[in-house]
Structures are given as structure tokens and as C-alpha cells.
Design a protein that fits this description.
2 copies of one chain form a homodimer. With about 500 residues, chain A is α/β, with parallel strands linked by helices. Chain A has helices at about 15-25, 40-45, 50-60, 65-90, 170-180, 200-215, 265-270, 305-320, 350-355, 370-375, 375-380, 410-420, 425-430, 440-455, 455-465, 470-480; strands at about 1-10, 30-35, 95-105, 110-115, 120-130, 135, 150, 165, 185-190, 220, 225-230, 235-240, 240-245, 250-255, 260, 275, 280, 295, 335-340, 345-350, 365-370, 385-390, 400-405. The first copy, chain A, folds into 3 domains: about 1-135 and about 260-320, FAD/NAD(P)-binding domain (3-Layer(bba) Sandwich); about 145-255, 3-Layer(bba) Sandwich (FAD/NAD(P)-binding domain); about 340-480, Enolase-like, domain 1 (2-Layer Sandwich).
Chain lengths: ~500, ~500
């Protein structure tokens, strides 16, 4: 059977990014086709945020008491959401959901090998590639396929592993380490990096390491899996030059990164530029080098989250529906949130981005510790956590924020807003934060900045003078003088 | 023994507000005296935030397993902090901590009946009254003093009550109801109001009531305590016209409000204006009618929190130290946070303040429910909670925000910042919130506002035209047009 159809936009991939474009355009009356090779909802609903956050919640409330129930609940919630979304998106007017494998034939033509059999040819003015990623795998000699897990298979477990070895100390690795430990598994985390969460500043690992230790999650850095002895259920890892046997390992979770789904798409035929390492190259509005073809979400270089895929999808839909609107705005710095225990959240630039734009002496780092410098840390026995802010000297402009601690993922959005709107620490100083919350730590950060800036004005001016051009210096001085002189202030219920 | 001494500022009351002024001025080199009749740290450290939040945390982590340990830990933390603060503030250079009962003799003279005996006469250029409040009591015939608790005595309990009756459905009542229920007490809440948390919009009670019910906390509205039968341990309450006997009640917590500590201060002698109902009258910089005498914190009309006492203290210290700075800024709208389960947090104006400033048709209310309209509500089985925003039609200016739900107290500060800086829902729409957090509900609120405003622009314009002056209307229209047209967007990982 061969069918042909013409659309305003064809979207390849029904994950968070693709569906965002599809629904946005369909609601505006555009005729769209969404091609999905597996499940509606993409990683988020099926193998990502939804099952992982359900598991983390279940592990928190049920602990080791009802582990099979916890894992069954994860699947029940995931399946119910998947079914709901499949029905809902299938029923959106103007939106055609097509299950099959898509392949570009040109900049306006897509063939779909239908899951139900047969092929279908589609044409459109716009094509959006949103095929996402899959987990990167690594062979471990001796380890059977059934014993090797990824985020695509771990939520299928009927019971937690007895001893779960996790390869990779990143977001997925850390989230699963804490969750399965709470469910009663013995957990060992193995990373080739020099610390866990190595995509973040090392202070994150400094705060997570004691938390891992307290929960008896064994962590091996500079280490890699070598082989598995199935008879003795032992995973051998190499750390520096010594071999370590992790005994009783019944499952290995591989969480060492992702690979982009770009191979079977016909990108070469359509002449879309990409690299295996960076994915499909786009500008800040998702445009590839080929007119009419866009790419969003994890298949591109700049997204690694549901919320960034989502934000990119909005930009593409907006540009597609309203092509006369300006499209010069740079892509925002996406926040991140990791649901380890404690949580880790970030906003703003990476350290590399800061280094590329600011003289190191212009950047002032302020850190407060939640356990000792917030009263809520005291009442709630918080063991680890901090708020760390990189700011521009004198101006108090926010560059980068990292929060580790309870509720970090909820606290971060104030900083995302501040960074987006150019709100400085002088302004955050004037906000009244409800006592006794962790957010009073934000007050403390602003207090420290103001105190050190105003009491050390001559020194700060000297530092800035040594590094920047006259015009920027003048702006910095104006900015510092614009705020009425403050009273130094403390972390606690008393302002000191 | 009679001593006499002269200071830059005398502060009466070593609570959060008073100490904020004292430390602020002392650090600036001013010679200050702080007079305290009981404990350094005031309500916050001794009978308020610190013991209550410690109890709430202990109840959460220990539950009914180790109740004596939980209560002992509350006292241990409180005592340790009190001791630390007493030592620290006693050691601040330029700060003289004097224990005794203060009485104004004139606008610059204070006598102190020292706790150690004797009297001391102090003079100063400035006097700051920060004497706070005490719990209001109500006699209950038949109930012995030892069985009647307030926030000043409840943390002294060695074990949780078997059946705790709480009079008052406000912040203290609700926080203690959930905490003691988790510790295993039977809890009955009795309020004369028509709903619990009646200082807030009724939707708060609508969300808390099922939570109270699920936890089996009996709630009686329109009800008052009548008498106590000690022999049968029964508290009789009157609800409408019927009498109800609450059996097995061993303790009654009276949490029906506060009374300001103004009686023994010599306010009449110094001619400081006050009313028993509103406390000491001040302007937005804490100035009373008497030059040189200020008042801050709960003894005034506008503060009821540690963070508001703190903010007022900063303003007074700033004005006192830098008298040439302008003092025309109005007092901010203080946020609130209540640590019931779910939490309740508010920012912005009260409904009365909105009604006094805006035509009702100009105000647009947007509400999203956390359980059904955020994916985190779904994964985490959130049962109750919402974000409700009152905004100005067309402009999206934020007037008032109420959040009920997990982490509400941490989410609220983004809105406090937005309200302070005049940031509208158009701007909050552009923020990328980490998925899947409750703060994506903020995105949803902004989405709804934009969708309804832009798709119903004619209707919204008509509504505004009917209510406001041309100049304001023009500003509203300009503001609505200033944002590039958005794509309607949803609560979930898909923007729809």
C-alpha cells in the first residue's frame, strides 16, 4: 500500500520536543504529521523523567518495605500516562499521529515505513527532526544481555537488584543510585571520571560524596568495568592499576551517556549537517543548514532535558507559525535539576562559557552552606548542601548558580528568572524571603556580596580597573552606587 | 545600685527585629544597648520558628517511633541555639546586652529594672521598641493551667498528648495539628471561624480540609471551647447550637492569636501612639509619632513574621545610620509560609488591598492544580495543592499569589521577586523551568494567562475599557503588545 499526503509540517519523533511543535501548530490550524517509531511521549514519559521520578518518590515513601509494589507502581503510572497521551494527541484536530520509521528523501519529502506494514510518502513545507537519543552501551565480557540494564530497561525489573552496579556517575547514575539504595539494593557506582557528576563544578561531588557514603553507596572513581564472572556473580572493575571484584552483582546499569538517533534518518540524502558527537547543527531557532528542516531536543547539540526540548519546540513552532517575528534571540541557558539526595540544580552559564566571556578576576564567587548558614538547615539536620553563585564584581550580575540541597530544584527558578532578566544581587538583596526557608540562603549570598563590595570598594574597584575597559568600569561603578547603602545582614533570623 | 549610661540607640527586645537593628548599628560603630526581659532570640529562637520547624522535621522523620526523642531534640536544638546566640550577641563589639524590664521615661530615656536586681537609667538619641507579642489566652472553666498549652509551653512536653485539642485554625494551630498527628497524638482542631486558615483565601481551607481528613485530624468550624470536665478528660465545645464532647483530651493548645507586649513600657509617658488592636503606629520606616522613637516587629501593625521583623529592623538601622537616605519607599508586601502538610505560601497583596485599589473586573484570577496539572504532581501522588494568581487583565501585573502544596514555601520567592520588580506573567512565560518540578505550574499559569489574553483580546480589551481610565488602558494595551506572540503551552512535558 502506498499513500501520499501533504502537510504544513512533518515532525519526526513524538517526544516532548516533537509533540510541543505538533500541538502548538495544530492548535493554530496547521495540518501536521507526527511520525513515531515506538511510543508516544518519548523518553520523558516512557524511560525518563516520569518513571524515574515516580521511582524516586516510591523509594522515598515505601523504602524497602514493598519493593515489588514500588516498581509495579512505576510501570502502572508510566503505562497510564502513555495511554492517555496516545489517545489525547491522537485526537488533537489537525494532528496526524503515524507510527513508523521515517526517512528523509529531500528537504520536503519523508517516507515512512509503517509499523503496521507498508510505506507512506509525506510532503511538507517544514520538517522537524526530534528523534532524540538512546543510551550508549558498552560491552562487558561475560555479562549477559539480560543482566545489563539501561534507562530503557531498568524500570521493567520486578524486584530491585540485590547488588546493582552502576556505570556512570552522571544524572541518571546518581538518581538511580539513591533510589535503588532506598529500595534496599546494595549499590556500587563506577565512573571513569575523577568525581561523580563531573559535568558540574567539583563542589557538587564534594557535597554528594558524603551523602553517598552515609547511604553506603560504594563509589569508584577513575574506574571502568572490565569483565563479569557470571558463575560467581562478580563484576571486575579496573581502578587505576588495580583490579577490584564487586561480588554479588546481579545487574549492571549502564548510564555512561547517550547516542543521538541520527543514523537511519536519511540526513545525508537531505544534506542536513550533523556530527556523531554534536548531533544535528542548528541555530538558536532550531534551523539546520537546509531551509525548511529544523531539529530540536536531544538530537541537537544544545538540549539534554525535557524542558530544553520543550523550549526549543516552542521556538520552532513560533517561528513556523509567525515567520515575520524576529529570530535573533540567543538560546537561553537552560537550568538543570538532578533528583539525587540531596538534589542538584543549576542555572546560567557553564564554567567554560564564563571563562570565554569574562576575565577571571572579574568573576566573584560566593558560597553559603545550607547546614551551617541557614536556620532551616539547622532545624532540619541538613548534612550537605550549598548555594554557589558566580557573579560579576561590582555589578552583581549573575552568571552561574549551583544549588545542592533539599528543594534545590524548586529554588533554582528564582535564579533562572534573575539571569534572564538581568536582575543583580543588589535586587535580590531587597527581596524578603520567608523565614525559615532555604531560600534565606539567597539573602545571605546577596548580603555577602554587598558587604564585601561596599566595605572593600577600593579593592574591588582596583580589581575591576585592572581587567576591563573604561566604559565597562564606569557602568560597574554606576551600578554599585545605584543601590542605597545596606546594613550587613546574616543567614539567621537576625540580620547581622 | 543605680547606673547611668548613654547610647546611640537603645533597643527594647532581643528578638529577630531588635537584634537586627542592634547588630546592624553596632557593626557600623554605633554604641547600642539591647534590653531583654527573658531570652535572647525572642519568639523565633525560643517559642516560634526554630522549635516548631525542628518539631515538624522530627515528626516527619521519626513519626510515632520515638516521640520522646523527637521532643527532646526540639529542646536540645532550641537551647543550643539560644546559648550560642546569647554568647555571640553578648560578644559583639559596641553591643551591650542588658537583661531586665525596660520602661520609657521620655523620648530619650529608659529605666531598666535589672533581672539581677536594681535599676539602671539609660539615655540615647534613638529608641527602638521591639517587644513583640505573647499568646492570647482564653479561660476554659475546669481546665487546669498545667493542661493548657500555648506556643510558649507546648515544646516543654516530654511526650505528645494522647488527645490534643487545638483552639484556633491559623498558622500555629495548623502546623502543630499536622506535627503532633504525625507523632501519634489524636488531634482535634476547633475554630470559631467558618474555615481553617481564615486569614487566607478560602481555597486554602478547601485544599487543607481533605488533608486534615486523610490524616484523621478532626476539625470543628464555627465552634468554641465551653468547658473541661477534668474527671472524664472531656473538652466540651459548642458548635452552632449543639454541644460536643471531645473525650480523652489531655491537653488543650490555645492558638487563637497574639497580644502585643505594650502594657508595661511607659508608652503613655513617652506619648507614643498605640492601640491595643493595632499595636504601635508607625510609618513605613518604623517611625512612631514621637521623634527618636521607632517600633518594629510584631508589636507594630504590619509585621507578623520573623522575616518581616527582620526587614523592618534593616530599614530602621539603615535610616538611623544613614539619615540622609530617602525614606519614602512603602513597606513591601511580606510573603508568608505555613508549614502544614501541604505547605501554604503567599506573596503580594491581600484580597482587601486588591479590592481597595483595583476594579474587580480588572483583576483576572488564574488557578492551576498541582495534582492534575503538573507532571510532578502525577509522579509524586500529590493529593492537594494549587497555584493561584491574581493578575491585572492585559498587563499581566502580579497582585497576589497563593500556593498550597509541597515546597510551596520555596516556590513563593520567585513571585515575591516578580512582584517587587514589577515582572509580569509575560516575562514569567519566557522562563524555562526545570522539568518535572512543581514550578512548571508557574509556566502553566503564564500559559493560561497568555492564551486567554491573546485569543480573547477583544473581550479582555472590552472588560478593561469598561473599568479604567484611558491612560491606564493605553498602558495595558502597550504592555500586552510588547511580547512576541506565544504558542499556547501546557503543564506537562509537552507544550500544548
Amino acid at each position: 500500500m502506498r499513500n501520499s499526503d501533504s502537510f504544513h509540517t512533518i515532525i519526526i519523533g513524538a517526544g516532548s520536543g516533537g509533540l510541543t511543535v505538533a500541538v502548538g501548530l495544530a492548535n493554530l490550524g496547521k495540518h501536521v504529521a507526527v511520525i513515531e517509531a515506538l511510543h508516544v511521549g518519548g523518553d520523558c514519559t516512557n524511560v525518563g523523567c516520569v518513571p524515574s521520578k515516580t521511582l524516586i518518590h516510591q523509594a522515598e515513601v515505601r523504602g524497602a518495605a514493598d519493593t515489588a509494589g514500588a516498581l509495579a507502581e512505576v510501570r502502572r503510572k508510566r503505562d497510564a500516562l502513555r495511554e492517555k497521551e496516545t489517545l489525547e494527541f491522537g485526537a488533537v484536530p489537525n494532528l496526524n499521529l503515524i507510527f513508523g520509521q521515517a526517512r528523509l528523501l529531500s528537504q520536503s519529502k519523508v517516507s515512512v515505513a509503517l509499523l503496521e506494514g507498508g510505506e507512506r510518502m509525506l510532503t511538507a513545507e517544514h520538517i522537524v527532526i526530534a528523534t532524540g537519543v538512546r543510551p550508549r552501551r558498552v560491552p562487558i565480557p561475560g555479562l549477559a544481555e539480560a543482566r545489563m540494564l539501561t534507562n530503557e530497561t531498568i524500570f521493567e525489573l520486578a524486584e530491585p537488584p540485590l547488588h546493582l552496579a552502576i556505570l556512570g556517575g552522571g544524572v541518571i547514575g546518581m538518581e538511580m543510585a539513591f533510589a535503588f539504595r532506598k529500595l534496599g539494593s546494595r549499590v556500587s557506582a563506577v565512573t571513569t571520571a575523577s568525581w561523580v557528576m563531573d559535568k558540574f563544578i567539583p563542589e557538587v561531588a564534594d557535597a554528594l560524596t558524603p551523602a553517598l557514603y552515609q547511604r553506603e553507596i560504594a563509589t569508584y572513581v577513575y574506574a571502568r568495568a572490565e569483565s563479569y564472572d557470571a558463575a560467581n556473580q562478580t563484576l571486575f572493575i579496573q581502578q587505576d592499576s588495580k583490579q577490584i571484584g564487586l561480588d554479588g552483582v546481579d545487574y549492571v546499569l549502564v548510564a555512561i551517556g547517550r547516542e543521538r538517533n541520527i543514523e537511519e534518518l536519511g540526513l545525508e540524502v537531505a544534506r542536513v549537517q550533523f556530527t556523531p558527537r554534536e548531533g544535528i547543527a542548528t541555530d538558536s531557532y532550531g534551523r539546520t543548514n537546509v531551509p525548511g528542516i529544523s531539529a530540536i531536543g536531544d538530537v541537537t547539540a544544545t538540549s539534554a532535558f525535557t524542558h530544553s526540548a520543550n523550549a526549543q519546540g516552542r521556538r520552532v513552532a513560533q517561528r513556523s507559525a509567525f515567520p515575520w517575528l524576529p529570530t535573533r534571540a540567543p538560546e537561553p541557558f537552560y537550568p538543570s535539576a538532578t533528583f539525587s539526595d540531596p538534589e542538584v540544580a543549576t542555572a546560567g552559564m557553564s564554567q567554560q562559557q564564563i571563562a570565554g566571556r569574562y576575565h577571571p578576576k572579574l568573576v566573584k564567587r560566593i558560597r553559603i552552606d545550607l547546614p551551617t548558614q541557614t536556620d532551616r538547615g539547622y532545624t532540619d539536620d541538613v548534612q550537605q548542601g550549598f548555594i554557589m553563585v558566580d557573579t560579576v564584581r561590582l555589578t552583581g550580575k549573575l552568571l552561574s548558580v549551583t544549588i545542592v540541597g533539599p528543594r534545590a530544584s524548586e529554588m533554582i527558578s528564582l535564579f533562572t528568572l534573575a539571569i534572564q532578566e538581568g536582575i543583580s544581587l543588589y535586587t535580590l538583596y531587597r527581596v524578603v524571603y520567608p523565614y525559615p526557608m532555604f531560600s534565606s540562603g539567597i539573602q545571605k549570598v546577596a548580603d555577602i556580596f554587598l558587604r564585601e563590595t561596599l566595605t572593600g570598594l577600593r579593592r574591588e574597584l582596583g580589581t575591576v580597573r585592572a581587567t576591563c575597559r573604561p566604559s565597562r568600569r564606569a557602568a560597574a561603578v554606576r551600578s554599585a552606587g545605584a543601590t542605597s547603602q545596606p546594613i550587613p545582614h546574616s543567614e539567621s533570623h537576625v540580620a547581622r
